[in-house]
Amino acid sequence: MLENLSGKDLKGQFKENKALRLVTYFVGTIVILVIGYFAYRTFIWSPSNDKSKDAYWIGLNSASVDSTDAAIAELTRAKKQYDGKQGGELAQFVLARQLMAKGDFKKALEELDGVKLNDTYLSVYKIGLQGDCKSELKQYKEAKDLYVKAANKNKNDKTTPEFLFKAGLVSEKLNDNKAAADMYTQIKNEYPTYANQKTIDKYIARAKNKSNK
To answer: Which pTM was predicted?
Structure first.
């Protein structure tokens, strides 16, 4: 038993028992990695992540005064400096939006593909913006799929009808007027506040008239 083994005996067994040595090295390595990970999170990643949260504000301020090129430059810098941090991901999200404002939808899609967001609404809008880019590029089938995905990701009274409406519009572009009418009708029945803003009956009638032709 272990309690009957002296330090010399343990040392001898460790030297002679290859399996024991391997297990000991393996466990020791895991312990070192775990300690290293938590030390990194506590003393390096967390302070850097907290600092990154303010990084995109300079670019956002430039965007607010219609200085798109300045905003893109600042946001690109923040994205590179804080890649993988919360502020870096937000900077990349806003950067994509500024690229869209400039009409560079392909580059905006590349940026959006790289954005990783935990925020519920922003993750929905990321998908919606991808749909907007596809729509601007006249890739209506892909746009429709993205809008439907965004509408269903986190159902609520704001984003769901917003993206259902956009899905309906691109469905009309695809001559899938029945699908468009169904989406508009769903908005009318389930999201009346949004429906009233868009005078949804007009869109339902338009889609149905197209379907009957």
So the answer is: 0.72
